[in-house]
Amino acid sequence: MKNNQPVTTTEVPFPRGQYLVSRTDLKGRIVDANDAFITLSGFTREELIGQSHNIVRHPDMPPAAFEDMWRTLKSGKPWRGMVKNRCKNGDYYWVNALVVPVTRNGQGEGYMSVRAEPSRQQVAQAEALYAAMRAGKASMPRARRSFADLSLRTRLVAVVALAALAVAVVLWQGLAGMAQANRALHEVYEAKLVPANLANEVVYLLGDNRSQIALALQHEPSNPFVNMHDHPVGLHVEATLRNRERINELIRRIEAMPLSVRERELMAVFGEVRERFSREGVNAAREAIARDNYLLANQLLLQKINPIYGEMIAASRALMGELESSAAASFAAAEARYDATLRNNLLIGGGMIAAVLLIAFFTISRMGKDLQALRTSLGRIAEGDLSEEFTGCRGDELGALACTLAVTQTRMKVMLDRVLRASQMIEAQVTTVRADMAQVAEQSSRQQTQVESVAAATEEFSESVQEVSASVQNAANSAAESRALVKTTSASIEHSMAATGKVVGVVQEASGAIHELEESVASIGDITRSIQEIAEQTNLLALNAAIEAARAGEMGRGFAVVADEVRKLAERTASSTSTITGRVAQIQSVTTRAVGSMNTAVSEVESGMALMQHSADGLEEVVVVSDRVAEEAGHIAEAANQQATASTEVARSMEEVAAMVERNVAAAAQASQACDALAQGAQGLRALVGEFKV
Length: 694
Prior knowledge:
about 700 residues; Beta-Lactamase; Four Helix Bundle (Hemerythrin (Met), subunit A); 5-stranded antiparallel sheet; about 5% strand; chemotaxis; methylation; transmembrane helix; cell inner membrane
């Protein structure tokens, strides 16, 4: 057995109101454990999962206790016992453990253990028992098997068999009594009645011999009635001889029978009288008749045969009386034996019936108590009370049902513990998600404010671009007008030098127009600077929006894409503004030179006609420059239109971003509501678990 070291003498108290739950596979490896078990053991969840459950075994636990546990579990029954476990730091704690096998579809898949807080009396008894077991002075107590441990079928079969045995015994005793009575009657018949009948027949034959002698005397010649006999006298003599043989046979049979001493004495007297009756009477008379000495025969009849026959009757009566008395005694003894047999049958049958009734009453009473206990246990479970402790499992069906109920209660405890852990985990996750949703909502609100600012700036930028476009269009129109005016002036110079005065006026008008163009170009420079500032502000806002989108994480990814597009548009705006600024600078340079040329032209016109040709050349240059100004103004107008289009796209993107942020805010609110609903569900689970008493 694994010996976990080191150990201390410090006992860790069992957590009040909690129980320790763990599950193992068929090899005893831990596959799950609740937080209370992990906290009390001192190990981490990672250190326990996948390890053998003996990682918490204390060296003080005797191996026989675990042998008894495994033997019980492998038989499919739950095991309950006191266990001393070791903490990671060597401390110990006592538990009242209930271990049940876990099956699915009839196949074992592991074991489940629920440990409750033991009483101090249980701890003291367990310490004493385990100490004695370690010293070899005691063994693991085992439940004694009794009649109640037999299955209901076995007990009912035993009751029926006992009842059948009782009936069989009663029948056997009755039949034996009847057989004994029959033997007694047969004995009375054989030993008493048969000898009496045989003796009566002997007396009858002896009387018949006397009668045959008397009838033979009727054949005396001097008898006046002699002629009435149509048969010879020898017929009577032969009859006495036949009777003698029969009498001898009967006497031998009587003497061969089991007679009592008194009966044999009386039989001897009867035999002696019969001898004298035959020898002195019948035999002598028969010889006298054979010699035709009827007188002697008659004398023998009167003096011997009749008196001895009287003695023989008295002797036979004495023998008959003795046989009758003996038969009466035998019958009385047989009757007494029959009464005793009947009494014994009644006692034995009554005793066995009482035993059957007692066993049946005990079985039914025990079944009633067990069913009532199961009904009470089921009632407590139905009320949510899972704190009842099942002490053991008997071998009968109700015991198996109690074991199944214990396993069911244990599994319900484990499921409730898992539900409680799940609800606690849900509540923790809901708290985290609620905090995240609050942060997302706050960030979305800030993003919405910033997007609104960007949208407003974009709208202002769009208006400025439109103003720039209008100004550029005006400058282009002015350049076109200047070009037409210069052409007209040149034509006037060519047609007539006389129109010099008008040319001076026209040049002055052109100079004013160029001054206006210079002012317009200057305003274009101001507008381009405004566009530059707006582009820089847009770039800064896009950067801020990208930062906020990065903070928002996955929910701000779409907004980051829009912010990046805004930043690119701002960069394009800055690039276009730089181009416009360069071109405006060129226009300003050209207009400045044009103004100088116009001033020179005016001076030349005023100086004289000699310089007219030079003025015409200057006008040609002005035409070229005007064309360039018109061209540049067209480019500026086109760039302004592109900028306006881009500003419109930016504004639309800002609106989409604002809508997205608004949806994010709504989604965050919905997520917060879902978190609230989930929190309520978790609280409902905890309340449901709280209805059970474990």
